[in-house]
Amino acid sequence: MQSTKLTFILLLLLFLLAMVLQVCKAEPVYNVSGSELNDMKHYIELIRQENRQLQNDLKNSRISLEQAEERRRSLESQLEELINGHKLLLEERNELETLLKDLRESFEQLKAEAQSKIRKLVIQRNLALIIAILAVFW
């Protein structure tokens, strides 16, 4: 008696397990009419066209990006050349300013020396005139 109960319970469990497996495996069934199928095909085609357009747009965008990157690199190179040129010009300007300062200082020294010599010559001339005048009248 007990073995029949056990057998019965085992069969019942196997049956329930089979039912659970069937329920788990079961997929929903959809009924699609011909017009709905045609609509779906049409939408799929529209999606494919849109996808192709997006792919083309992406390709064009990549090309534009590459061109922009190349232009940026070119501009950066030009900017670097301009900066280097500007640095050289600044260095030359500083050198010229230093030379000009030195020339001004030299000129001022020469001017002072020339004025000093002129004063000495004027004094010598005036002394010579005084001596000549005294010699004539004495």
Could you characterize the architecture of this molecule?
The protein is mainly α. It is 93% helix and 0% strand. The chain is built from 2 helices and no strands. It has helices spanning 2-25, 34-137. The radius of gyration is 55 Å and the shape is rod-shaped. The model has no long low-confidence stretch (mean pLDDT 89).
Beta-strand share of residues: under 5%
The overall pLDDT, averaged over residues, is 89
Number of strands: 0
Q: Name the helicity range.
A: over 70%
First-last Cα distance: 181 Å
**Shape verdict:** rod-shaped
Could you state the oligomeric state of the chains shown? single chain
Order of helices and strands: HH
Based on CA atoms alone, the radius of gyration comes out at 55 Å
Q: Helix/strand-derived class? A: mainly alpha
Poorly predicted regions are: none
The main β sheet shows up as: none
What is the tally of helical segments?
A: 2
Provide a quick synopsis of the model:
This protein has helices at residues 2-25, 34-137.
Q: How would you summarize the topology of this molecule?
A:
Blueprint: H1 2-25, H2 34-137
List keywords for this structure.
93% helix, mainly alpha, 138 residues, rod-shaped, 0% strand, 2 helices
